[in-house]
Amino acid sequence: MANKDYKNFINEYLNGDAAEAYKFFGAKLHDEGVSFTLYAPNAHKVAVAGDFNNWSADSLWMKKDEYGVWTAFSEKAKKGSLYKYVIYSSDGTFIFKSDPYATFSELRPGTASVVYPLKDYRWTDARYLKESRSHNRVVRPMNIYELHLGSWKRGKLTELSQEEQDAHKADEPFLNYKEIADELVEYVREMNYTHVEIMPVSEHPLDASWGYQTLSYYSITSRFGKPEHFKYFINTLHKAGIGVILDWVPGHFCKDSPGLYKFDGSWLYENETEILRENYEWGTANFDLGKGHVVSFLISNAVYFMKEFHLDGLRVDAVANMLYLDYAKEDNKMLRNIYGGREYIEGIDFLRKLNATIYSYFNNPIMIAEESSAWPLVTKPTYVGGLGFSFKWNMGWMNDTLNYAKTDPLFKKYKHRDMTFSLMYAFSENYVLPFSHDEVVHGKCSMLSKMPGEYENKFAALRCLYTYMMGHPGKKLLFMGSEFGQFIEWRYYEELEWKLLLYPPHVKLKKFVSDLNLKYKTLKPFWEKDDGYEGFSWIDADNGDQSILSFVRYSNDDKDFLVFICNFTPVSYDEFRIGVPRFCDYEEELNTDWKVYGGNDVKNKGKIKPEPVPMHGQSSSIVVKIPSNGGLILKPVFKNKKTAKKEN
């Protein structure tokens, strides 16, 4: 790099404007050897130690320039070499550190970085990328299957009997990225999801952190293979028309000694003030988002994943931790900005810059905020004062809905507002409705176990809940195992309870979810007007006594709409009158009580005829059978001229 270009780059890097810093820093392979480049301005001395120099802490010294950038070159290092930086303090003490920009790392519990160039991969997903990035995602279907790669499926201990295997599930080996991809793509297609969201895959030392406490941000975890295998994973899903979203954690990082914590003897990546630096809730360190090089590091990491691995987007974890100085902390006068407020001004600026940068690099990216507060304009453009995300997890909807769903039917009428309040703000942001991993761990019970009642009632209630979720405005997300009714909570250390699919109720629930997903994917009223009240109207939002909700979803075609009726109690109705928006015949598009789904087959056969009886503010109404703990989706049937003549 020419001297002028180098100065310009360093200036951008230190100001937070270098969006592809990973191309400069780290270990780069050349014909003659490997060059190492590191930013550590406060280190007294730095050396490179690796398996190519017997891990000597003082044989390959790096040279420091005026900007705090250290460089070295080794003719002995090669592709696959293990290495670390040896950071010396002025008192002569030193510590071994992993490379912040390493693209690969050794398998845990080892923490060494690996010289591993990003090879050119033969991508075959150009058609998918062109099509998927050419439309407005807000008014397109998005139904996300969330999964943890280490526990979706595992390999088998073939030397053990089936009984022994069940007792040693936690010892089963991980599948690699390619093996997961080949199985997952068929499963996701069978289940009719449009996207998958995978939990963090940046290298992390502790399996129990699920990937949320990162050690090496640019390293794809070696638990499941190499970077090119992860590319195969994404390419395989893309070729099948399935989008891939990555859970990404830019707010905080693990404090393990080989990582970023106190990297060069100073608080290089974190804040100098303890109360701002320490994340007491998670035992991690918060990034100091007011430092330009930290902003460059993180935004470059986002670009790296999107550009080098063709990801469709990122789900940004713990956004509230980057919006508020006092997030998950006791009140303290030091947790105030220069104006006296709680808002983390530098964090807000970072999020805006992140989204603006990603949108400048990619067409229609998916940037999802996991934001748990009532911060306004999360999904509005940065140029109008928004944060610039494309979607936000609707945590309020999730909490209210699950609080209602787990309530005994006798008392649901007292919590009816939990199911209607979300429509007061449903279009204030572009929302994703999440039933995520966080809701099926730490004593919260699995989705099926949350449902009240006996065995059969639990399945029926869950089918009804999923129907309500699909009908409610917003994109959808469901965590793995919830689609076939796993009874136990999610365990990160063993695969899902696939053996449950030997039992009919679980098989039938899985079929129900697959069919419901297909309805969602193919019927426009579910999503074509997902961004405004013209796509939704209540029929009856106030029937708390019977705990029945009814509403309509519309598409752009005024004859293309769906009527939803959800009964959240174990009481069935043979004749239930409901107002309808058009005087036409109706028929069942889906009934959660169909026998094929494990129900009692309480259904409405054939055409449901309208009557000129006013009801629910409508001029006409219909009478239907409503199953206990059941949901109905009705579609209009309009007579064409030929049909009308035959009937006459």
Briefly say what this structure is.
The protein is an alpha/beta fold. The protein contains 13 helices and 28 strands. Helix 11 packs parallel to helix 12.
Give helix % range: 10-25%
Query: Quick one: overall form?
Result: elongated
Query: How many individual β-strands?
Result: 28
The CATH superfamily of one domain is: Golgi alpha-mannosidase II
How do the strands and helices of this protein lay out in sequence?
Layout lengths: L2 H13 L10 E4 L4 E6 L5 E6 L12 E2 L4 E6 L7 E7 L5 E4 L15 E2 L11 H7 L10 E5 L14 H6 L9 H15 L3 E4 L3 E2 L12 E5 L6 H13 L3 E6 L3 E2 L20 H4 E2 L4 E3 L5 H17 L4 E4 L28 H17 L4 E4 L21 E3 L1 H11 L25 E5 L11 H4 L4 H17 L3 E5 L24 H19 L13 E5 L7 E7 L6 E7 L5 E8 L4 E7 L28 E7 L4 E7 L3 H7 L1
Parallel strand pairs: 9-10, 9-21, 10-13, 13-17, 17-18, 18-19, 19-20, 20-21
Antiparallel strand pairs: 1-2, 2-5, 3-6, 4-5, 6-7, 6-8, 11-12, 14-16, 15-16, 22-23, 23-24, 24-28, 25-27, 26-28
Helix pairs in contact: 1-7, 4-5, 7-8, 11-12
Description:
It is a single chain. The chain is α/β, with parallel strands linked by helices and 648 residues long. Among the domains are: 3-114, Immunoglobulin-like; 395-430 and 445-648, Sandwich (Immunoglobulin-like), CATH 2.60.40.1180. The protein is 23% helix and 21% strand. The protein contains 13 helices and 28 strands. The strands form seven sheets. It has an eight-stranded parallel β-barrel. A hairpin with a 4-residue loop joins β15 (278-279) and β16 (284-286). α7 runs parallel beside α8 and α11 runs parallel beside α12 (504-522). It is elongated and about 90 Å long. The N and C termini lie far apart (83 Å). The mean pLDDT is 95.
